Amino acid sequence: MTSNTLNISRAEIDTDATEQFKTQAKRLRKALAARDVAISHAGSLELLAQSHGFRDWNTAVAMARRNIPTNVSDLGIGKRFAGSYLGHAVTGLIRSVNATPTPGVFRVEVHLDEPVDVVESKRFSGFRQRIAARINEHCEPVLTNGMSGPGLSIDLLLRESPDA
Questions:
Q1: What phi, psi does 48 have (nearest 5°)?
Q2: Phi/psi at 67 (nearest 5 deg)?
Q3: N or C terminus of the chain with fewer C-beta within 10 Å?
Q4: Taken in order 112, 107, 87, 130, is the CA torsion positive or negative?
Q5: pTM of this structure
Q6: pLDDT tens for each residue of 3-44
Q7: Mapping DSSP to helix (H, G, I), strand (E, B) and coil, where does residue 152 land?
């Protein structure tokens, strides 16, 4: 589970905003294939996102549809999200959102769809699936005092899947 890419279904995101990125990723994949460089479709999406200055494909999608920004007021118990946690692309379910004594800082608890390894060691692993983190009103990771820091970023809210 060291992958940093996600499989988000088309029904879960606004596809209109991502079609241009997908078209560009297909062109990139063809251009690389013409130079005998084989790359998967997911790999081309990640490369394209990074070439536009985003950290990963999910962030690119989030920013492409961010005409309605994700704010902490949009979050709610049971809502699905996509984002990142310590450099890992993640999806999951929001379990709680609470204000903290520090103005503009909120505590959010989430349950990830897939556990992520939060240890950068070849000798052992530390997988986490239930996370409590601090975010600001723009759903960006912050420290207890409200200063920017590492942690959980909620980049976009996902639609409920049709079978849910």
A1: -60, -45
A2: -60, -20
A3: C
A4: negative
A5: 0.60
A6: 444 555 544 544 455 777 788 788 888 888 888 989 898 888
A7: strand
